[in-house]
Amino acid sequence: MGEESFAQTIDLENWMKKLPEQIKNTPFIYIAIPGSHDSMTYAITRSSDLAPDAEPILKRLYPLFKGTILRWTITQSIDALQQLLMGIRYFDLRLATKTGSDHFYFTHGVYAGEITGPLHQIKDFINSHPGEVVILDLQHFYGFTADDHQKLIRYLLNMFGPKLVPRIQNLQSITLNSLQRLGQQVVVVYRNPSVQSTGELWQSNMLPSPWPQQDSITALLLFLQNVKRHPGMGFVHQAVLTPTPAFILFRWLSTLREKCAKPVKNEIYPKLTEFTPGPPKTNGSASVNVVIADFIDLDNAIFSKTVINLNYKLLRNTNSLFHNNG
Question: Where is the Phosphatidylinositol-specific phospholipase C X domain (predicted)?
Fold first, then answer.
């Protein structure tokens, strides 16, 4: 089956399970995996309060321009389960505490809902889809004390327990098939250097996620094509535009979906087809593992289909892959 026809028939809900054996025996860090950027912002509403990660200017403008600010803060429109059903297997999570509450919340400048519901959606999904593996990347922690970190880690260990993929030295030895044999389905990356995390949690350097911080398509593409990765680690390519305050000011009445996500879809996604999973080339560039985007539901999940489809290049490159890896 050609790559083009495959993209049409892809079973997004079970795509990992349905990969050819050759790909399921490829190191997990060399497989192309679609992810969502600021994954939980779909839960932001007009009643959402400002969160501890809000920029100072936001605090001044929020009461007057709440509607506009929300239009530029929300980066996803569907919940965690719907994202999973659309093939997303990586979640970019930013968390905050809230004064007067014992709970933890997702955040992106404003509070985006308490963490329990979405995490239970993910847990239920993996329990009913034993061939699928999900990465939870806990990127930022706002208003956290040392006790908060310990409490959150205990919560994650209790929730996912034996399903967690432990931290090991040789990431190249982890494959979808090896994980399935062990019943392990959840990678948790915990990006906080001050926390002596347990062996069940991965550290930042195991899945670097450099921020392009670009508001133009040309600059973003250059970044994605030239960013370097380490052959023994995972990697996140962020296929996202970052609007500056000036960028938003000139597009005040529009939305992040219209002015950032759609141009990326139209101009970056077609370029992603030139990328290849597998170990980095000698110059370390343009070999993909995780790729993330805003509004992953656009055009009937064309983003997930584009990224997942890259894996079929591994069938053509298998001999060199295992030669490089042996």
Answer: 22-191
